[in-house]
Amino acid sequence: MTQAKIIDGKAFAAELRAGVAADVAVLKEKHDLTPGLAVVLLGDDPASQIYVRNKGKQTLETGMRSFAHHLPESTSQAELLALVESLNRDGEVHGILVQLPLPEQIDEAAIIDAIDPAKDVDGFHVINSGLLATGGAGLVPCTPLGCMLMLRHELGDMSGKKALIIGRSNIVGKPLAQLLLNENCTVTIAHSRTGDLAAESRAADILVAAVGRAEMVRGDWIKPGATVIDVGINRIPAPEKGEGKTRLVGDVNFAEACEVAGAITPVPGGVGPMTIVCLLRNTVTACCRQAGIDEAALHG
Ligand code: NAD
Q1: Where are the domains of the chain?
Q2: Terminal Cα-to-Cα distance of the chain (whole angstroms)
Q3: To pair with 36 at 20 to 30 A between CA atoms, which of 21, 60, 179, 286?
Q4: pLDDT digits 0-9 by tens, 237-277
Q5: pLDDT tier at 1 (50, 70, 90 boundaries)?
Q6: Distance CA 102, CA 39 (A)
Q7: Whose CA is nearest to atom 32 of ligand 1?
Q8: For the chain, where are the alpha helices, taking DSSP H only?
Q9: Spatial contact of 20 and 284, defined as CB atoms under 8 Å apart
Q10: Could you write out the DSSP letters of every residue in 56-98?
Q11: Residue to mutate (ligand 1; options 99, 102, 189, 192; most atoms within 8 A of CB)
Q12: What gap in Å lies between CA 277 and CA 85, rounded to an integer?
């Protein structure tokens, strides 16, 4: 049995990040314009703090401006709305990201709704999800966009392929389904109420797992030669590393899947790095659109 190709999201993301940095350099040199990304974090959740730090670091590394707004957990809805509105008006800020999840006193939907759709680099605003659903030029959510770039890189033309996405969230499953439809795939979305998930999975040429359940997808669920994208990030105990230690795994049983799939993304090092680079790319896209600059012309 041949082993699946491991899709190296980290290496691909580094390549794309170099492209973002080159575009930022052109924007500065030819247009005297520096893209700026504002990231808003409420509270001290350790995982969110790591994500936000990483985003800020990579924003600066690509030559952009990074504006970090770290507010207390007790921030009120009105205070957060006032900050979002001031960022909407700020000419140096081209992209706004409010790190989710938000504390319970905040109405998440109202905050997303308040972000200027032109600066909504997470692509969660209804205007942007509507544009994605109707084939318009909005801002596309970063994780689905990252999955799509990897699939295009790996498979090229996807016309006629059967794609199964497990998970129907607004931030991953649903937007990815739209993107795969745009690539002329025949798309199925599975979820917690799907009848025979294993059988649905076995029919898929492209299998995307975005559930949040450690190693749920087994090797015998996978069609031989299929391309598998594992979006899940799950922390599980790792007693082999020592007492109380943990490790990250995806939604797919990686060792089993490697025996059957044609190609597969690892966790970590697959979708995760692609998500951040797509955020950087979306910030450049947003900046170009706000300034009326043709983004494609930046890279010659
Ligand atoms: P979510 O909780 O919003 O959605 C999970 C989906 O899985 C739901 O639609 C639900 O119907 C489905 N589901 C739950 N149990 C199921 C089951 N037994 N069988 C089939 N479907 C089931 O999650 P989300 O925000 O879409 O994230 C999914 C996973 O992806 C999480 O592990 C999250 O950490 C990860 N994630 C990773 C990145 C990244 O950058 N790599 C980004 C976003 C999310």
Answers
A1: 142-273
A2: 44
A3: 179
A4: 999 999 999 999 999 999 999 999 999 999 999 999 999 99
A5: low
A6: 13
A7: 212
A8: 9-31, 46-61, 77-89, 108-114, 126-133, 142-155, 173-182, 197-202, 254-258, 271-291, 295-298
A9: yes
A10: HHHHHHTT-EEEEEEE-TT--HHHHHHHHHHHHH-TT--EEEE
A11: 192
A12: 26
Strands 246-249 and 234-237: antiparallel
Check residue 300 and give its pLDDT.
75
CA distances from 43 to 34, 70, 102, 111 (A): 29, 8, 8, 16
Residue 2 has pLDDT above 80, yes or no: no
Q: What is the distance between the alpha carbons of residues 149 and 155, in angstroms, rounded to a whole number?
A: 10
Interatomic CA distance for residues 283 and 99, integer angstroms: 15
Would you please indicate which residues are annotated as catalytic (active-site) residues?
A: 55, 99, 122
The β-bridge partners of 96 are 38, 120
pLDDT tens across 256-266, in order? Answer: 999 999 999 99
What are the pLDDT digits (tens) for 14-65?
Answer: 999 999 999 999 999 999 999 999 999 999 999 899 999 999 999 999 999 9
Q: Which residue has the tokens 């692509």?
A: 123
Residue count (the chain): 300
Q: Over 70: is that where the pLDDT of 224 sits?
A: yes
Cβ atoms < 10 Å from Cβ of 141: 29
Q: To which CATH superfamily is domain 142-273 assigned?
A: NAD(P)-binding Rossmann-like Domain (3.40.50.720)
Say if CB 231 and CB 208 are below 8 A apart: yes
Nearest-atom number in ligand 1 for the CA of 251 is: 32
